[in-house]
Design goal:
CATH superfamily of the largest domain: HUPs
Number of domains: 3
Oligomer: single chain
CATH architecture of the largest domain: 3-Layer(aba) Sandwich
Radius of gyration: 22 Å
Strand order of the largest sheet: 14-17-16-15-18-19
Number of strands: 20
CATH class of the largest domain: Alpha Beta
Structural class: alpha+beta
Amino acid sequence: MINEVSQNAMTCPLTLPTILTPKKAKRVLVAMSGGVDSSVTAALLKQQGYEVIGVTFRLWAGNEGQEHAKACCGIDSVEDARRVAQILNIPHYVLNLTEVFAKTVVADFINEYAMGRTPNPCVRCNEFIKYRVFLQRAEALDADYIATGHYARIIANGHFRLLKAVDAQKDQSYVLYMLTQPVLARTLLPLGNFPKAQTREMAKAFGLPVANKPDSQEICFVEGDDYREFLRKRRPDLVKPGPIVTEDGKVIGTHMGIAFYTVGQRRGLGIHNPTGEPLYVVRIDAATNTLVVGRREALLTREAVVGAVNWICGEPPKSAVRARVKHRYRSAEGLAWVEPLDGRRALIRWDEPQWAVTPGQIAVFYDAETGEEVLGGGTILSVTTLVGEEKHCQALSPLSEEAVR
């Protein structure tokens, strides 16, 4: 069945075929977003002799049933992927995953903010869509592998190891911490050995029209990158004013709803500190609908508990391990002890205090010696902040295993 997906008379199948012709080589389905990275991924794999099939996901139909054209899953991106596939002379399909995307990635995004946590939707998209649903579809088509344009490396050495990319500025191993041994065995990441500049040069050499296309920076389903407006439209009930209080309980303002704030936020609070010292969101109490603000040092953390932990090797260590732990995508890594706990949890104890460790974000563990290998990671459930000589536990509402998956 052929469905129209753009006003430029560009048509693509919105479902993958149920059967393909017999394989003449190793078959790989490449997730093609229409950007330079996934396009070069497809080109390299074809050059290496694989039978390459390009697949572009249709993930989000928006509030009025229309995705915004410039998003990584929007109409313009589908058109770019189709053009690249034509140049490479490979089959190309558009896979409609709007329903599962809305029920997993978007629902998780909204629910986490509603509970006062700060989600990472790109991680959830990798977990639910690229490395679960996509892999399932690939297996149904007798594909040997799936491939994406992520900058990271997979090495087989007794078991599969996930390493950082050679380009430290583009490394995306952080958002792949959830990959298991069976998934790593079926995944190809050909860009991990190249710097981004070389990827663009390869795109030019392959004659691809996306060689100079800017990287997508926004959340694909949040138009204008304004997540607060997105939440207001999708969940008007989240606009629920409540008190802003200092750490000693003094009410100094009113917030519009806890979903619209994040730990570490300083701007947009609408409050004034008579001392002139900046105040930051240090805790979000969903149970009482309260924002707690304090000085910058109130956000220093030495300990955190993470849940839904995935250990890349397939099982947790027998005892605490030394690791370099990154608690946000752009944060620096801090040396720590990571101790496995029951219920797929782990306790992180950093050597030095970390700033604004935030429930809902992801903590990823790298090997302590080189910092190159991903050991595992999980979703931050609670943190223990240091204020003077005292410790304050910022444990939010209990988070079920299903919530963080």
